[in-house]
Design goal:
Length: 467
């Protein structure tokens, strides 16, 4: 079994990389530890969480806004098992889609743990212990990441859980403590908050989404508080103890002070993810990793061993499915002799709460720290006709442009469907557009995208028309 390229891991980075390799005429194999393809994203990450987010949004709107729309319901209730069943069906359909793509592109699929025997030999160990040996000219490591679960938090997969187990809860909890105010904690926390769960978020930093623009953090915090989510900023967790029926979380101010305690039905650990390289036997191929477990790569995403590449969550950078996909295509085209390019500054970030959060480019704080002169334009969704029509008036769009050249440097937004709206900013910034360019484009009315135009006008000589 000889291959031009072998991909280890079938998440978005891995399977997309394998498809591109096959399209380019390379004999390609893909190795997946689990029985279903798609990795964390399709099975226990992006896709199932979005399915539940949408379901919870429908319920919340039915309970809180339908009456104002003139729609009256009786005996509204949550059927949590059905909600989970639909989520599972979405996952199943999506994973089967990846299986189809492997067959369509004539990619050989191996099920089992892939590990290096040497630089060009990979062992595939099945669940029953049997092994197969693959010889490969090139290898792409795309094994993704796993939730960080410190021993002090006593992760038990029962009442002290990660996002993986949270997606399986089939009865609405009365209460939940979320450790971590990042993307995963807020998305899943908001799912259960909309269904009626009392959510406490404990965050070490002084705000949620600490890597995103400060204004986005403030806007989303205001919105989530309307769901009665309670935030404990500047606090550290000192202990977590689970039982058969609940969890107790102890925490204190990061500056010291008395210990506080919250008892809840569940404790969700959402403090980040770590590169998942367990079982790869990197040492047999001489592959180096840094002190955080990330595989070291050069600007071509090649490891210190020629012919072995690494992409996605196992290397440095944002842990985003679309980043992994871009890197997978990049490596495939590089192996085929092409000269691809990735601009990491223009990889958008999205938080799928409601309202959504999205961003591309530099934050205002990053521009200040770099000493780059800039100007700001903001526009609130409450001033937008389309947002008032749909009762989605929380949030704003913020445009950052160079003070002297007017080039767009960053765009940040909180609001309805901004996960989609952000692509206008990404496209314009790819072509080095200015705030004036964004403002001069004719936007359809009434749409959410008009907020982007108005923010660009505000950044251009304070010319916003509707505030």
């Amino acid at each position: 079994m000889n291959f031009d390229v072998t991909v280890i891991g079938s998440g978005p980075g891995g399977y997309v990389s394998a498809i591109r390799c096959a399209q380019l005429g390379l004999k390609t194999a893909i190795i997946e530890k689990y029985n279903t393809l798609g990795g964390t994203c399709l099975n226990v990450g992006c896709i199932p969480s979005k399915a539940l987010l949408d379901s919870s949004e429908h319920y919340h709107n039915a309970a809180h806004t339908f009456t104002e729309h003139g729609i009256e319901l009786k005996d509204l209730k949550i059927n949590m098992p059905q909600m989970i069943k639909r989520k599972n069906e979405v996952v199943d359909q999506t994973c089967k889609g990846v299986e189809f793509l492997m067959k369509k592109n004539k990619i050989e699929v191996f099920t089992g743990v892939g590990s290096f025997k040497d630089k060009n030999t990979i062992l595939v160990t099945s669940a029953d212990g049997t092994t197969k040996e693959i010889t490969t000219a090139k290898t792409i490591i795309a094994t993704g990441s796993k939730p960080i679960t410190p021993e002090t938090m006593n992760y038990d997969k029962n009442r002290v859980i990660t996002s993986t187990e949270a997606l399986l809860i089939n009865k609405v909890p009365k209460s939940m403590v979320v450790i971590g105010g990042g993307v995963i904690g807020l998305e899943l926390g908001s799912v259960f908050a909309r269904l009626g769960t009392k959510i406490h978020v404990i965050e070490f930093q002084d705000r949620i989404l600490p890597t995103m623009d400060v204004d986005c953090s403030k806007e989303l915090t205001r919105s989530l508080k309307k769901l009665e989510m309670e935030f404990h900023f500047g606090h550290k967790v000192t202990g977590v103890q689970g039982s058969k029926t609940g969890a107790t979380v102890s925490f204190e101010s990061k500056d010291g002070g008395e210990t506080k305690e919250i008892k809840a039905d569940y404790c969700l650990i959402a403090i980040g993810r770590r590169p998942y390289t367990d079982g790869l036997a990197l040492e047999n191929a001489g592959i180096k990793a840094d002190d955080k477990g990330r595989i070291e790569v050069d600007h071509h995403l090649q490891t210190n061993v020629e012919g072995i590449y690494a992409i996605g969550d196992v290397v440095k950078g944002a842990m985003l499915a679309h980043k992994a996909e871009e890197e997978g295509v990049f490596v495939a085209e590089l192996i085929a002799g092409q000269k691809p390019h990735i601009d990491y500054n223009l990889i958008p970030g999205v938080v799928y709460t409601w309202p959504e959060v999205s961003a591309v480019g530099k934050t205002e704080l990053e521009l200040k720290e770099a000493g780059i002169p800039y100007k700001v334009g903001k526009f609130p969704f409450k001033a937008l006709g389309r947002a008032r029509a749909s009762m989605d008036t929380d949030g704003m769009v913020k445009v950052l442009a160079h003070k002297d050249t007017d080039e767009l440097l960053g765009v940040h937004m909180v609001g309805p469907r901004v996960a989609d709206v952000i692509m206008e900013a990404v496209a314009l910034m790819e072509f080095k557009a200015s705030a004036e360019d964004m403002a001069r484009i004719c936007h359809p009315h009434p749409t959410y995208t008009e907020a982007l135009k108005e923010a660009a006008l505000a950044a251009t000589d304070n010319r916003a028309l509707h505030i």
